[in-house]
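Subject line: Sequence and fold of a protein, written as structure tokens
Enclosed: The protein record, placed directly beneath this head.
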Amino acid sequence: MGLIAVGADVSNAFAEAPPPEAPLFMYIDDNYRDWWENHLKRPPIPKECNVVRVNRAIQGHPESPRLWEKHIDKILRDMGFTPARHEPCLYSGTVNGERVFFLRQVDDFALATPSTVSCEAVIKYINSKMTMDVKGLGIIGRFNGMDIEQTKWYVKIHSERYLSKMLQDHGWLLETPQNLPIPLPAEPKFIKRLEAAVPPTTATEVDQLRNEMGFNYRKVIGECLWPMVKCRPDISPHIIKLSQYVDNPARDHYKAAKDILNYLATTKSEGIYYWREHPVDSLPDGELPTLHHDNYQLNTIAGDNGSLTGLVDSDWAGDTVKRKSLSGIVILFAGGAIAYKSKYQEVIALSTTEAEFVAACDAAKIILFFRSIFEDLGIPQEDATILYEDNTGALMMANAQQI
């Protein structure tokens, strides 16, 4: 929509909210008395006074997050913003005749508008309801640990800074760098080898294997979960698989985890590109991606930038231990993934058609969720959302219009 996102931060969020309904008191210690008298320059607190009434929400109290949420929600609603029904932290409204989108995550704000003037007006109004001003952060380059690149042609999200910091702890990385790396081999025999790998049987063997491989398997899998959830769908099925062995990994699991880290180290600047329908001349050009770099205007995989598109696939009984099938789902908008999911199915499918149909049903639920959000944001999806599925039997069942 040609919008520019700016950030804002509330430095004193919980203390802006009202106190809990039940009276709350805190003990007065020597440090508090010293702060009261020497820092605030106020009269000494009588020695017989042992507690003080808390007049605001306070960090650590179980009600404080809810109280802050109700407080900032009321401020935004009073200004004319409306939250999405199924995503109450995401708002839309009109300020100075311009469409404004507002995202809040606890005390971190992101506002998207055609110009920064409307953003400044929103922040100014919020400040009028606060005891301490909200800090404007300008055009967003980072949000909740995720790197954001806003350019003339696209908005890119990635996790290069997180990965760079994470990978510094692993000196054995990139022992065999690859020009065109892949996370892990896709051949079924590789997955079967992971499932058939024999783990250590004693605590001594577990320690010996960990020392030999040079890293903590559980820690590495945990470190990879964050970029996987945020902006790296390419490693999702592999991390899902390797996470099944964190209790007692075998040598093959260690080697696979090392391959994942090598892949991330080689591709740490990669992320998801969301392409603009029209260029924003006030922003820098930015570097075009190395893949499909010639398709930078209205870059789409299926459909067009203003329409949701879904793709779904599934294997059949790929897990040789429990015989469950793995669903893979991705929902695209503006040329990039806005939702993706890799998950073993709850039921055991008796055929490829059944496995693919279960995956398609799950994808349809996600599509309905996003169609609802787009409706609330004033970007309704007028046409039916196309879901790409490659199993003929599943397609015939879905289009039969009967149960």
Remarks:
- The first strand starts at residue 4 and ends at 9.
- Confidence is low (pLDDT under 50) at residues 296-303.
- Residues 6 and 140 are 5 Å apart (CA to CA).
